[in-house]
Structure formats: C-alpha cells, structure tokens
Amino acid sequence: MAWLVLVISGLLETAWAIALDRSAGFSRLVPTVVFLVTLVLSMGGLAYALREIPVGTGYVVWVGIGAVGTALIGMLALGESASLPRILCLLLVVAGVVGLKIFH
Q: How far is CA 70 from CA 2, 50, 53, in A?
C-alpha cells in the first residue's frame, strides 16, 4: 500500500507543480487553490509512505515521478521543447527510479 500511495503522491506533485505555474505567482485563485490542495495531499502521502519505505528511496521516487510527470506535461501540453536529448534524460530519471524500486 505504501508504494501505491507514494506513486499517487508523485503524481500529485506533478499536479501542484503545474498549478503553481498556472497560478501566475498566486495571483489566480483557482490554480492557487489547486496548488495548495495537491501540495498538502502530496506531502501527506509522502509522509504516509515513508512510514514503510526508507526516506532516501521514497523521496527520490516521489521527486522522480513529479519531475518526469511535470516535464512530460510541459512537453505535451505546454509547448516546451521535446528534443531527443531531453527525452533521453527523462528516461535516465525513470531508469533510476525503477532501479531504486527494484533494489529496495
């Protein structure tokens, strides 16, 4: 259950990062509220998962999911560059996260 919560929390990290961008410095109400809610849920899920998963592994998996998810949304929906080197770097992050899970 801790791993499932950790993955969901990583996805929520992606949500709060995108909402933070869309909040325009906290000047837009709806994205700011989405940011706050998803931030609290993401951190709460991470805290719950760390009761069973070592902090080093849990934190890197959480950040990795959030970072890759945010970068993918940036590339797919927000017009950011989707160059081959960027995609290869994201694949390296994914490989590291998978490796940490496998060797946990």
A: 22, 22, 23
Q: Is 56 exposed, middle or buried (0-12, 13-18, 19+ CB in 10 A)?
A: exposed
CB 59 within 8 A of CB 84: no
Over the stretch 52-76, which tens digit does the pLDDT of each residue have? 999 999 999 999 999 999 999 999 9
Instruction: Specify the pTM.
Output: 0.89
**Cα–Cα dist 64/82, whole Å:** 18
Could you report how far apart the first and last alpha carbons of the chain are, in Å? 15
